[in-house]
Amino acid sequence: MRAIRRTKTVEGTSIPGIIHNGGSYFYINVDVYEDGMVNCWELIDLKGLSGKIQSGWLTPAAPAGEQLSIHGLGAYTVESAKWTYNEASYYQHIQDTVARLNPELTNIYDISEREQERNEARRIAHSPSATEFYVNSEMFYQTTEGKSVHLFMKYGGKNYLADVVVYMDGRVVLYNLPAEAEYRLEELDGLFADGTLFTTLDVSTPVQLLQLGEVTLGASLYSSDAQEKLKELHNLHKQLNGEQTAHEACRAAYYAYLENPGEYYREQLRIKYELVPEHERMYLGDMDSKDWDYQRILYHPEETREV
User: Fold this and answer.
1) Which residue in 105, 110, 108, 93 sits closest to 58, CA to CA?
2) CB neighbours of residue 135 within 10 Å
3) pLDDT digits (tens, 9 = 90+) for 9-23
């Protein structure tokens, strides 16, 4: 039988959630779609969602004393918290989100038993990456894509964990605040400089996790440098516009050095390497090598590369 397939666009939104995996807690964006599908590190239907919440895999809370990791930002100890939801009310919150996206609740997707068996047999765990966008013109439904990072933000006298989305046209919108805040990319330097946007907690700090509750986080166990996050936002903007990113320029300099291992190319590699956000340098290689060979060349050139 001849095989074909098609791609369908399904819109949705993201809400905060926490994954409890292997004894650790990870703050995530739970992607909720208008067809009732939900992505919490795995794309599932509403029936599967109930199971994920009941099993504790997806939770609206992290216990005091536990470490909460926030991808690309840092890790912090939960000292105390006032959480908004329990298991039942959090499931209802997600159901209500689907209803807001799709008031008639039409075309709600239900993963069939046959599909579930096929995915298990093929060892498929769907976890599609959501595409951020905003509608810039209702005429012909023209949209502009974006990419996001997590940052802390001082807003209205309180601290919030915000989703910062930089769009292709240089527009930057901060979500998960009482009201969305909009800037231009070039304005972010000032927001980092005056501490409005930040990454590190030096002392116990109350932080609003909008929709989830208020949590007091202890001093950072580790965190990304604020200026490195600013670099990341500028790199995301380049990526959206099809420009060469710092990662791509660094890899090109790496291969140039391997072909011509002299001091000139080593210095060019150093320059390009330092332009890559520090917390993202591990992605220059694969899952095993990370950026170790880059470090060897730059900081331990006397060591021989193993091939």
Assistant:
1) 93
2) 9
3) 999 999 999 999 999
